[in-house]
Automatic annotation (TrEMBL):
Residues 471-591 form the DALR anticodon binding domain. Residues 6-101 form the Arginyl tRNA synthetase N-terminal domain. Monomer. It comes from the Bacteria. Its EC number is 6.1.1.19. It catalyses: tRNA(Arg) + L-arginine + ATP = L-arginyl-tRNA(Arg) + AMP + diphosphate. It comes from uncultured spirochete. A motif ('HIGH' region) lies at residues 137-147. This is Arginine--tRNA ligase. SUPFAM superfamilies: Anticodon-binding domain of a subclass of class I aminoacyl-tRNA synthetases, Arginyl-tRNA synthetase (ArgRS), N-terminal 'additional' domain, Nucleotidylyl transferase. It is found in: Cytoplasm.
Length: 591
RNA sequence: GCGUUCGUAGCUCAGCUGGAUAGAGCGACGGACUUCGAAUCCGUAGGCCGCAGGUUCGAGUCCUGCCGGACGCACCA
């Protein structure tokens, strides 16, 4: 079914064309995009508002005149309403044309569709293959708060794109080689004495991270440490069996631990790429580009690209000794990915500090002649800071991902106990864990990706306001009402839902908000911005909360009223479940 | 210095391609539990939208300059 806003845009457009004809304007062209639809500031003003300013000049009429003329001719076509999916009345209010939707039709539509668990999905991206790269951890230390933002952004965006019809492939490039991991190895050789994570009772990635930190100590004791790390890297690249064995052991520890964190965070990947397998890719491409004159060899022997014309300066693509650097690898990886799975779009979820890198990368691929280079997209997100300042490894102000989730879960468990909900929720540990994830994920997604954000531990732990737990709570309340009905409470079972019983001014704001789910999902997908959906989820929860306070659901004099309201609660639950799922906020039947 | 980006209520943030009286949440203050779970709800206070120009019928939104913050400007990743 056509979206209600689009349908009314079409109607308005037809009327505007009629006016243009009457005025004898020959070169009048109009697309639906030229018509702006907005939500009137007050509900009394209608459900959709169309400002007419834009057409005033061409028609040589005041916006108000245009509005009233359209409204009048719409009156003459009243019988058309019967044929429309979204009937309604058009009214001129000053320079605005406002639509009042026929409420019973809208309610009927909502009730018959919202129960479908797939409702809200759209087809805007259907048939499109979208690859999304995110997380991409280093294997020398555990994940921290910044990774959590990256992970949840990538996971949520993947789910949203899928809901918008795309075929999605989630990929993760594990940075498992390089001098950083050699430092952990070196420190382990110096202080590890062959111990294992089990010996020290540490999660395996934390164990590796501990030695990475210990490298700082090693540097103080051994001024040659940095150089030794480089030597170790060279041995690794030469395939020294002992070095490889150690690398593999430590790498497995790190990766195993990181995977464990993914499971806890409930994010997953369809494909893993490992840097030790990909780091040599791209060299051939760069050399071919050199032959074709896309790149040039500098006096220093390295291969360069000149991007001065774009204001991006000059950039090395391959070292003079022929070895790859970061960007060489990314060139090769992108090509390899497109060959194995010809995507229509590849989205890199990577922090904003790498904007320059991706500009260069995309330009290089374009100049190499890959037409799909224009479909590469860097979803740049801002850094996560703390109220106390920036996270710094050296200052020990990094918030560890596992520790944070533990702490949130612990506090949620305390809260459950204090509220006396222990018996009602059953498995406290499990529910507390879900609340922790809801709190964390919602907090991270609520803010537009591009912005740097402040992670306020105190506020993220707050269970009131614009938070994940609030949304979970409203979902649990809706579930609770439905559960009570299933257990035989109330008289809804004796009635049948009637759309006209849900069309009052008290119901309408909630109904209208619920109807917006499909367009919100579409908007989030197009903008690659889960925060739009997060704001919507909060609006639904908040409107539901106000509505059920004033409107008893289970028992009413008229059983039909109970049945109708119960159906609306079902729609609320369905919409909250869908939004929660897309936001990686676990839905809870009880909390 | 150059580039990118941000600057909206005490705090954290919304405000879509310019459009109707700039909105939430937190915090503050005042109310609401014999009634589907008060982790809730209702109300009040709080803003020269960084500053100054410009474009427009109309600017928080676009352009220019300035001020302030963040990030980048490696043969690191």
């Amino acid at each position: 079914m056509e979206h209600y806003i689009d349908q009314w845009k079409t109607i308005i457009a037809a009327h505007l064309r009629t006016i243009a004809d009457k005025k004898g304007i020959v070169d009048f062209s109009l697309t639906l995009n030229d018509i702006i639809a907005e939500k009137p500031p007050k509900p009394e003003l209608g459900d959709i508002g169309f400002p007419m300013f834009a057409f005033a000049k061409q028609f040589r009429l005041s916006p108000a005149q245009i509005a009233s003329e359209v409204a009048q001719s719409e009156q003459l076509l009243k019988d058309e309403n019967e044929k429309r999916d979204w009937p309604g009345n058009l009214k001129a209010v000053g320079p605005y044309l406002n639509v009042y939707l026929e409420r019973t039709r809208a309610v009927t539509f909502l009730l018959s569709n919202a129960a479908n668990p797939d409702w809200g999905s759209s087809a805007v991206f259907s048939g499109r293959k979208v690859m999304i790269e995110f997380s991409c951890p280093n294997t020398n230390k555990p994940l921290h708060l910044g990774h959590l933002r990256n992970n949840v952004l990538g996971e949520s965006l993947s789910r949203i794109m899928k809901a918008a019809g795309a075929e999605v492939k989630k990929v993760n490039l594990i940075n498992d080689r390089g001098v950083h991991i050699c430092k952990s190895m070196l420190a382990y050789l110096a202080y590890g004495e062959g111990r294992t994570p089990e010996d020290e009772g540490l999660k395996s990635d934390h164990f590796v991270g501990k030695y990475y930190v210990l490298f700082n100590k090693l540097k103080e004791e051994d001024p040659q440490a940095e150089q030794k790390a480089q030597e170790l890297l060279q041995k690794w690249e030469a395939g020294d069996p002992e070095v490889i064995a150690l690398w593999k052991k430590m790498n497995d520890w790190a990766v195993d631990g990181i995977m464990e964190t993914y499971r806890r965070q409930q994010v997953s990947f369809d494909e893993y790429h490992f840097e030790h397998e990909t780091y040599k890719l791209g060299k051939k491409e760069v050399l071919e580009g050199l032959e074709r004159g896309v790149f040039y060899r500098g006096e220093d022997g390295a291969i360069w690209i000149d991007l001065e014309d774009l204001g991006l300066g000059k950039k090395v693509l391959l070292r003079k000794d022929g070895t790859s650097i970061y960007i060489t690898q990314d060139i090769g990886t992108a090509i390899m990915r497109h060959e194995s799975w010809p995507f229509d779009q590849l989205i890199y979820v990577v922090a904003s500090e790498q904007q320059y890198h991706f500009k260069v990368l995309f330009e290089v691929l374009k100049r190499l002649g890959y037409d799909w280079a224009s479909s590469l997209y860097h979803l740049s997100y801002g850094l996560v800071n703390l109220p106390t300042g920036r996270m710094k490894t050296r200052e020990g102000t990094v918030v560890d991902a596992d520790d944070l989730i533990d702490e949130l879960a612990r506090l949620a468990a305390v809260e459950i106990a204090e509220k006396g909900r222990a018996d009602a929720v059953g498995d406290i540990q499990s529910v507390a864990g879900q609340i922790a994830l809801g709190a964390l994920h919602y907090y991270l997604l609520q803010i537009s990706p591009a912005k740097d954000m402040l992670y306020n531990p105190e506020q993220s732990l707050s269970f009131t306001g614009d938070t994940g737990p609030y949304i979970q709570y409203m979902g649990a309340r809706a579930s609770s009402i439905l559960r009570k009905h299933d257990q035989g409470e109330g008289n809804a079972a004796q009635g049948i839902p009637k759309a006209n019983l849900l069309s009052s001014d008290a119901d309408w704001p909630l109904v209208r908000t619920l109807m917006e789910l499909p367009s919100i999902i579409e908007e989030s997908a197009k903008g690659k911005d889960p925060s739009i959906l997060a704001g919507y989820a909060h609006a639904v929860a908040s409107e539901f909360s106000a509505w059920y306070r004033d409107n008893p659901v289970l028992i009413n004099e008229d059983p039909n009223l109970s049945a109708s309201r119960l159906a609306l609660v079902r729609a609320v639950k369905s919409v909250l479940m869908r939004a929660s799922e897309l936001l990686c906020v676990p839905f809870l039947e009880a909390m």
